[in-house]
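mind reviewing these C-alpha cells:
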Amino acid sequence: MDKKLRIDLQKVPKHVAIIMDGNGRWAKGKGMSRIFGHRNALTAVRESVKAASQINVEAITLYAFSTENWNRPKLEVDALMSLLINSLKKELPDFQKNGVKVNAIGDVESLPKNAQKVLTDVIFQTRTNTEITLTFALSYGSREEIVNAIKNISKKVVNKELDLEK
C-alpha cells in the first residue's frame, strides 16, 4: 500500500543545505568510476531543487566541492570541473524557466578560469530570478570561512568601526 507523502507547509525550512558526499563511493560500489557517481548526483540535485521550489523552500546550498577536494587525483578534479561547467550551461534554460537564482560561496577565484567564467555568467543571467536561490559552495572550507570572519571583525576593531566589547 502506497502512503501519500504529506508535508506541513508551515514547517518547511526556508533554507536547506545539501552536502554532496558519497557519490564516488556509491559508484565504486556498483563497479563504476567515481565520476559516474558524480554525474548521477546531478539527477538528485535537479529533483531536489524542483521539489524544494514546489514546497516553498527559499534557498538551497549545495556543498559541491570543498577545499579538501583539491587533494583528489587531478583527473577526478578535472572531471568535476568539467561537470560543473557543462551542468551550469545545460541547466541555465531551466534555471531561467523555473526562477532559480544562482549564487556561489567559497574561494571561487581558485577554480579554473573557464569554470569561473561560466559560473559568473550564470550568476549574472539568473540575478533577477526570485523563486528559489541555489548557492554552490565551491572550493569551500569551514576553516577558511571562520578565519576570514575573524579577520574581517579584527579589521573593523582596528579601524574603530566596531567596539571590541560588542
